[in-house]
Specification:
With 219 residues, this protein is an alpha/beta fold. The chain has seven helices and ten strands. It has one domain: 3-Layer(aba) Sandwich (Rossmann fold). Helices cover 32% and strands 27% of the residues. The strands form two sheets. Strands 6-7-8-3-9-10 form a six-stranded mixed sheet, with helices on both faces. The chain has a four-stranded antiparallel sheet with strand order 2-1-4-5, with helices on one face. It is globular, with a radius of gyration of 17 Å.
Length: 219
């Protein structure tokens, strides 16, 4: 599914305060894996996730399937991202004054999808929150918001789900419930990659990738 070869990310490359966030990362993630990326703050784990999600530039090679996408232009990257990758963020990144349903429908507009409401309701039902569809997001609990965020991430039926600290803002019981959701999605064949600082959460995944100072120390 994914192969990185000598991927490097340098911020401010032409300035004196340049910072090498990733240094010659090589990594293979197979179709259907459930991976956790762990590391201390500043280790490069979120940068790696952003590159996997085609959200940041880099040097090196990135094979998505058999296609080298390292040199894709932004328009092509955006199209691939919208069709194949779903994102879940720690802060949910939902529009608070919109309903849960309206939030889940949002990724369907850029790709011109038909039956937006039907597709969104299918994702919402899968997350067990049909009763919250019409409710304004500002009225939801943290766990409910994260379920809405996951429903939004899967509404396009992506092959890969990327989650950045998806349990970081949740209590332990709710975090366990959210991890069960990811396990269920993975059992359906989706590749799930999460970034976490919590080793107990990482141990619930099938594989742990540890990064330190921009380099992979174990995978």
């Amino acid at each position: 599914m994914i192969e990185l070869k000598n991927v490097t990310k340098i911020y401010n490359p032409k300035k004196n305060n340049q910072f090498r966030a990733l240094n010659k990362i090589s990594l293979i993630i197979n179709d259907g894996e459930f991976c956790a990326i762990i590391g201390k703050s500043g280790s490069g784990k979120s940068t790696l996730l952003h590159i996997l999600g085609l959200l940041d530039t880099f040097s090196g090679e990135y094979f998505f399937g058999k296609r080298n996408i390292a040199k894709l232009k932004e328009r092509a990257s955006s199209k691939l991202r919208a069709a194949k990758i779903g994102f879940v963020k720690q802060d949910f990144a939902l529009i608070e004054e919109y309903s849960a349903l309206d939030n889940v429908m949002l990724p369907l507009y850029p790709i011109g999808a038909r039956d937006k409401k039907k597709k969104a309701m299918t994702a919402i039902k899968k997350l067990g929150i049909s009763h919250l569809a019409a409710k304004e997001v500002s009225q939801l609990s943290g766990g409910e918001k994260q379920r809405v965020a996951i429903a939004r991430a899967i509404v396009n039926d992506p092959k890969i789900i990327l989650a950045d600290e998806p349990t970081g803002a949740l209590d332990s019981r709710t975090a366990a419930e959210i991890m069960d959701v990811f396990k269920s999605l993975n059992s359906e064949g989706k590749t799930v990659i999460i970034v976490t600082h919590d080793l107990s959460i990482a141990k619930l995944c099938g594989r742990i990738i540890e990064i330190s100072d921009g380099e992979i120390v174990s995978a």
